[in-house]
Amino acid sequence: MIKAVDKIKEDSFLPEVGSEEFMTHAGENQSRIVTSKIERINTELSSKEDSLVCTSISVGIAHGSHAKDTATWFNNADSALYETKRRGKGGYTFYSAK
């Protein structure tokens, strides 16, 4: 998992907001870059080359335009994260106002 966090940190600001939760910011036009990185990390984490236990990352993505303030933005991303986990983990979900 540390390798995954290090890969994300290479070009992102990544503060820890919980024991296993991190938050980062990407520009509005970077969705494809972010999702490609998530997919690449999950592929790498699921390989059994080093005989360690396989794991994955689950990500919730929220665009700032859907939020009136930072707390709402964070809560939107958190909602998207739990939707990813509900579907079986190891992926990503974009927040969508219902």
Order of adjacent strands in the largest pleated sheet:
1-2
What class, by secondary structure content? mainly alpha
Q: Element order, helices and strands? A: HHEHE
* CATH architectural label: 2-Layer Sandwich
CATH fold naming: Alpha-Beta Plaits
Number of domains: 1
Helix content: 40-55%
Shape: elongated
Q: Which segments are poorly predicted (pLDDT under 50) over 5 or more consecutive residues?
A: none
How much is the average pLDDT? 75
Describe the protein:
This protein has helices at 2-9, 31-45, 70-86, and strands spanning 59-61, 92-94. The radius of gyration is 14 Å and the shape is elongated. The protein has 3 helices and 2 strands. It has a single domain (2-94), classed as Alpha-Beta Plaits, CATH 3.30.70.270. Strand 1, helix 3 and strand 2 (92-94) form a beta-alpha-beta unit. The protein has 98 residues and is mostly helical. The protein has a two-stranded parallel sheet.
What's the arrangement of secondary structure elements?
Elements: H1 2-9, H2 31-45, E1 59-61, H3 70-86, E2 92-94
Kindly list the characteristics that best describe this protein.
98 residues; mainly alpha; Alpha-Beta Plaits
Short overview:
The chain has helices spanning 2-9, 31-45, 70-86; strands spanning 59-61, 92-94. It has 98 residues and is mostly helical.
